[in-house]
Fold these 2 entries.
Entry 1:
Amino acid sequence: MNLLSLTMPKGINQLALFDCSRPPFLNHNFVMRNGGLKRPFGIGMEIQDKGVLMNNVPLKIKVLKYVADQGVVTVQDVMDYFEQWKDPHTVRVTMINSGITQMKYGSLRFGIWFINDKKLIERLRIYYPDLPRYKVRGVSLLSKVPHSLELNKLRTMLEKSDKIDISDWWSEEYIRALPDHKKDGLTAHKVPDAIFWRKRKDGTWQKFYFEYERSLKSPARYGRIFQFYAKRKDVKDRNVIYVCESEQIRDKLVKVEQDLVKGGRLNGVGQHFNFIVRSDFNKAYGRIKKEVKLWIC
């Protein structure tokens, strides 16, 4: 093994056995053996965001699509994701004029925002004709606000990182809106927080399931979820990413995986899942980088 000095945050040593040319949780030796998963038919709305076709879409429509994607957002989420404004009041006016519903939420400045009108979804489809019809869940989304707001930050951090090229991002709301025949076996009983495709340098795509664990579920429930993932043909080489809010949560998930293997309900440890603590994720993919040495394979 060789040592390289890279612009990476301190405290990431525990991720040291990864090729430094790719993000910590994405770059095992399997990457080039994976065959270059092709982007499934029907994906492309996120790619259009980066292409010529999207130049004619008004910014307020892009904001509306982002809100539909994420379910619940804040003004700061929109500012961070689009990087188009310096004044939050301007964003607030844009969202009000777009018809997005605003609701007070604790001491959060400008509250939270979500779509509560089906007509807004139809307006989106004028610009994005292939977009599925998002379910307008309105206030029912409020039960998961803390989780949703943190997930917004994680998505922005990952998509803005210079360590990875995200070609497509399917949010939970997007997946739920897909017709059953396009969900590829995903059901209402188990929808990931997101699915994303990482674009490799050779132009191929690599698929990942993304989960954010803010709090612990029961071991039995994790057992069912882990077994669900393990049975999928597109789950291999640790491409199910669990970002855990704390080391305690990470350690519990590791133990659940180990217990399932001991009980013969999973084939082995380290085959399907990659558990990373939120603080390490932030350090690895945040904008502020510091020098650190990492081992590469």
Entry 2:
Amino acid sequence: MSEKDVIDNENKSSLYLVCPLDYLEYSIKTSFNGDAYFCTALGVYFEFDLDTQFNLWNIIHENNIGQVVLVTSLNNPLYKKAFENEVECSDHLAKSLYKTCMKIGSNRLMNLFHQNLYLLVYWHLKKQMTRLMRTEYLGKKIKSNGMLLKAFIRQPKQNRFCDLEEMAWKGHLFNNISYN
């Protein structure tokens, strides 16, 4: 590993991967410490072609970023449209959200929208984290530099962010599924 590829993980700078429909930049800057850098994609679904991976790594390296954080909001209109199978955006994002809805249980989706919303957002972000870490260049760089990869969901009514563990717990609780 060359000196150029080493990231100082003590630095609190973060690269936030967000959806432009969420308008989270201000909330993130006021809720989290450290410098904030942003990259956007609809539904936090990034096309990780090699050029994108190289560009993201250059941003990370040049700004000595110590963690990558995926963030979305429960108010994102794409999630409601996913339940209705009406997402009008990239085929990859639409298919990903639809498959996640099917995983939750399509026969109950509209009746339990708010409850299943927690699970949809949880599984979607979890899937995007896995996709990122499996990329041929960026994922390897993140791993080899011991960088943190996190995800948060904004709960607008409570004016707070919660991590994936809390979101999974809420989704299971609302769906009367044992969390044990």
